[in-house]
Design a protein that fits this description.
Blueprint (H helix, E strand, L loop, with lengths): L8 H8 L7 E6 L7 E7 L3 E6 L8 H13 L17 E3 L2 E7 L11 H18 L12 H7 L9 H21 L4 E4 L8 E4 L2 E5 L6 E4 H12 L9 H14 L4 H27 L13 H13 L12
Antiparallel strand pairs: 1-2, 2-3, 3-5, 4-5, 6-9, 7-8
Helix pairs in contact: 3-7, 5-8, 6-8, 8-9
Length: 321
């Protein structure tokens, strides 16, 4: 159970009085998540999600509120934070920062269909198109500079071959990114795995958990999606899901020539990003709570596949009217 700060019914009922969301009915802890306490809250008018922020860079929470407000205002399928009667979204409860969200419909897709891939690609393309005008700023905390700074911390836990592989890849990435210069920038989700989406059949109910949100290379988000949504167990890319996602995405925001040139590198770099972050949790920075960390092996497999086989050809661009 990923509830690190328990709450009582009376405590939440009092908290809700500041909002125009109806009368408290019930409270249920959510058995998922690795950093924050999450609850489903039912009132006589609606279903809500209440999140208490347990750790991390809490001074950056206003950025996430502003980003979600912005995307919600542009009719993206995200949970816009609920503001109280004074227009304030970020609150405190049980001496922790707290946010209240509408509960969006659907479930996480385990094996996404081609239509779900198309729908997600379209939504991400729409999001990136409007996010380029978002005025907030939070540098990407997991970009190439992070890889350069932190990969040495795990080298002692790797085989000699993996040490060489990781060090050489980081050096290669540095040269590739320097060659192509700045890519199109905007606000990113930063962690758009299948379990951060909700679907009802082939209908997208919402994109959730923006706590890795930042501003940076839009291509970074696209590569994360392909490495999760369109990747087989052996690390290879599924051509049908790959094309469904990227055709729908590019109908909204065609990739530039620089992005196309750097695409294989970005796929490989984001795979290494998750291999490294999971190695750090296992060996260097164990979770603050009694939770089982993600297995790094999955993203080592994906990274190796990207290094050995590169990327599939990008589909042709078809721009929507």
């Amino acid at each position: 159970m990923a509830v690190f700060t328990p709450l009582g019914d009376a405590q939440v009922a009092t908290f809700l009085e500041s909002f125009d969301v109806g009368r408290f009915v019930s409270l249920q802890g959510v058995a998922s998540g690795t950093e924050n306490s999450t609850f489903f809250v039912t009132t006589d008018r609606c279903e809500l999600v209440l999140t208490l922020f347990e750790q991390g860079e809490q001074e950056e929470l206003p950025f996430f509120v502003d980003l979600l407000d912005y995307l919600d205002d542009h009719r993206l399928p995200v949970p816009g934070p609920v503001h109280d009667r004074n227009g304030v979204a970020l609150q405190r409860l049980a001496d922790k920062p707290a946010l209240l969200f509408p509960r969006l419909p659907g479930r996480h897709p385990e094996s996404p269909s081609l239509e779900q891939c198309r729908v997600l690609g379209d939504a991400l393309g729409r999001m990136h198109t409007v996010s380029r005008r978002f005025s907030g700023s939070r540098p990407n905390p997991r970009d190439l500079s992070w890889l350069q700074a932190l990969h040495h911390k795990v080298l002692g836990f790797l085989s000699n071959a993996d040490q060489t592989l990781m060090k050489n890849a980081v050096d290669d990435f540095e040269g590739e990114f320097a060659t192509y210069g700045e890519l199109p920038q905007g606000a990113l989700h930063g962690d758009l795995f299948r379990d951060n989406t909700l679907f009802e059949g082939d209908r997208l109910g919402g994109i959730i958990d923006f706590y890795n949100g930042c501003t940076g290379d839009l291509l970074f988000d696209v590569a994360i999606v392909i490495n999760d949504w369109a990747t087989n167990a052996d690390g290879s890319i599924d051509p049908a899901r790959h094309d469904a996602l990227l055709e729908a995405y590019q109908a909204r925001r065609p990739l530039t020539s620089g992005e196309r040139a750097l695409w294989p590198t970005m796929l490989s770099m984001t795979a290494l990003r998750y291999w490294l972050s999971r190695l750090l949790v296992v060996y260097v920075h164990p979770p603050a709570h009694d939770l089982t960390p993600h297995d790094p092996t999955r993203f080592r497999t994906i990274f190796m596949a990207r290094q050995l086989h590169g990327a599939l050809p990008l589909p042709e661009v078809s721009v929507a009217n």
